[in-house]
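Morning!

This is the sequence you dropped in the shared folder:
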Amino acid sequence: MKHKWSIGLMTGTVNDGFIDVAALKTDGHKIIEYGPFELIPYQDKHIQSKIIETVKAAKKWRFENTEPYIFAETEKLISLEQSEAVNKFINKFNIKREDISCVGFHGLTVLHQAPLGDMQGKTKQLGDGNLMANYLKIPVVNDFRSNDMMNGGQGAPLAPIYHLAVSHYINKKNIIILNIGGVSNITYIGKDDTLIAFDTGPGNAPINDFVNKKNSGHMDKNGDFAAKGSINFDFINSFLSHPYFQLNYPKSLDRDQFTYDQIDKLSLEDGCATLTKLIGENISKALKLLPKKPECIIASGGGRKNLSIMNAVTESTNIKCENVEKYGLRGDAIEAEAFAFLAVRSFKNLPLSYPTTTGVTKPLTGGKINQLN
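The structure's back. Tokens below.
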């Protein structure tokens, strides 16, 4: 049977100005073939500042009253930009439109509120799947999280079922696949394909914000600032006393769930060193919730490029933290690949989320399928 390409799109909460575009062939269960991958910059140079403005508006809105007008503006802008990114991608790599089954369009998360007690969670993703489907003349799957949250789930993380396929592809079990993005999250894959996943705590976002506040760029490149600093363990111990870290899984975070006011008093180097160690420590705390200690940690996401973060995770967990590239995988592509994979599962009505990943009562499919008008 000939399998078609599925294209996945991702833009993370770090707002780096790039669209991750990846192609793969899958039957919705296993990875059949990896296709090309590309980081495509937004052409409209105002989009990053527009996204910042939109996220600020979302924080004020908090799911109350009428949605801010800027949501519709930003949604149209990113939907058209990402549609054009797919066009560029398939033209560059000579992929015929008729050889593409679907596009998995994650969209932009501007606000995510996990369930609390009896209160249902809410999420706001910007992305017009119908606009994209008709622009590209290809079916598009978007809005992957809403069905999960309507059924009592956390709405995140959604990549674990793809991580399970990855573990089969590289033939490794009893592992953690760690994604260090704006927020850090883990997927544990046991020997018997046990699947557990949750957000562990802060990732790159507070480091990026801190470096930006200190007028020293947009990130701590390679962890160079952190490597020169001293760790403030009082801040870390106080931070980790937050109730979130005592909760059992499933659990998920919004990028801005925590406050970091105390860190602003520290020097650039000491603040980076402290926030970097915090990543290692929140992951270490998370691993204690698992049924078995994993044999290795395989890191993806932007944080894997930061040597200080990788060292912090290894030191805090006492488990070797390795880069996904060691296994022939593409760390920058994993999230986009995941949504290419999830799009195919949506079409086949297969589950995207599970009781041990998002907290739904039973395995549940999701995603809104946008066919051509």
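Headline: The mean pLDDT is 94.

More detail when I'm at my desk.
O.
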